[in-house]
Amino acid sequence: MRPLATLPAIALAALALACAPEAPPETEAPPETEARGSFGYQPPPEIAPAADEEPLLELSYEGGLIKNPDPTPFVRVYPGGRVLIHYPAYMKRAGDYELQLSDGEIEELLASFAHQEVLTAEPAELAAMAAEVRAAEGPAEQSDDHGVAAVVEVRADSFTPAGAAAPTMLDLERRLVIEDMGAAEAAEAPRFRPLRDLAAGVRTLEALAERPDLEPVAETPATPEPPR
Fold first, then answer.
1. Which residues, in sequence order, are CB contacts of 3 under 8 Å at separation 6+?
2. CATH 2.40.440 matches 51-216
3. Which residues contact 99 (CB under 8 A, 6 or more apart)?
4. Which residue in 6, 39, 137, 199 has its CB near the most CB atoms, within 10 A?
5. pLDDT at residue 89, rounded to an integer
6. How many CB atoms are located within 10 Å of the residue 28 CB?
């Protein structure tokens, strides 16, 4: 009968466990980036537009079979978001058109160019990449660009790479040339990224000329001559 003396102690222990506060339910640990808060954020690359009236981006073409090419750039994008499109006289839509981009559209437009490798690429380097792509595709693949090169002019106050605290390029003024758009768009290897990104930027600029919100540029009325 001696073990019965332990029953009150067992009962008290059970009562204490019943009255103890419930442990909070386990929760999953927040993701690493969320746990780090602002320390896990890496700023994207940035091209800071210039404050003057010069175009931020220009797209034009060189070479080809046209004897008297039009010197006016095909597409001009200004820091405030204004875009001018110029169709040469020999094209069906000959004339000048304009549209207005939002801040978000300008950022998206700059995304293809906002890479150190793109902004520092030399024409000879890009041409060598395109030649390597064509050689890998074989002789059956022929370029349909007819000797036309796409030329992008980039002008800005500065360029800051992704995650950098300060700009690495100031007073940016670069001339980027693609001599073979077909090869540039077919380039898949990681080492061809500058060529591929630049080609994507050219196509994005070209797409602006097909926008349905293009408006003809109003001609400035001529100033009448004073009476003699």
1. none
2. no
3. 82, 83, 85, 208, 211, 213, 214, 215
4. 199
5. 86
6. 5
Q: Where are the domains of the chain?
A: 51-216
CA pair distance 37, 17, nearest whole angstrom: 39
Q: How much is the pLDDT for 31? A: 38
Instruction: Identify the helix (H) or strand (E) that includes residue 13.
Output: helix 7-19
| pLDDT averaged per 10 residues, the chain (length 228) | 44 42 44 41 77 88 77 93 92 93 89 88 92 80 69 91 84 92 91 92 95 87 61
Q: Count CB atoms within 10 A of the CB of residue 69.
A: 15
CA distance 74 to 70: 9
213 within 8 A of 85, measured Cβ to Cβ: no
- Maximum Cα–Cα distance for the chain, whole Å? 137
SS3 label, residue 132: helix
